[in-house]
Fold this sequence. Notes:
By secondary structure, this protein is mainly α. It folds into 2 domains: about 1-40, no CATH class; about 50-90, no CATH class. It contains 4 helices and no strands. It has helices spanning about 10-15, 25-40, 55-65, 80-90. It starts with 7 loop residues before the first helix and ends in a 6-residue tail after the last helix. About 10% of the residues are buried. The model has no long low-confidence stretch (mean pLDDT about 85).
Amino acid sequence: MSIYLPKVKELGEALNVDVKGDTAEAALAKVVEKVRLLQHKVGLPADFTQYNITEENLAQTVPAVMKDPAALSFAMPKELIEAIGQRVVPLGVK
Length: 94
């Protein structure tokens, strides 16, 4: 999460989180809490266990992430995308 620290106060302000006077780490904790509250408020699950993700679905995420417009500025190698996918999807994927 340390990659967010340089911009976390700006993100907090954009999310209407009071981060004035906070350290970057304290501001990040407040921002994460705000995102979790928003996630709950709109009915998104806290993790991926409620989704029926198959190995095939997981494999499809690699090219999708690589084609995402954000990849122009924040390109990730295939291996990193796969590793992240394996971490967020519960063991025993169908």
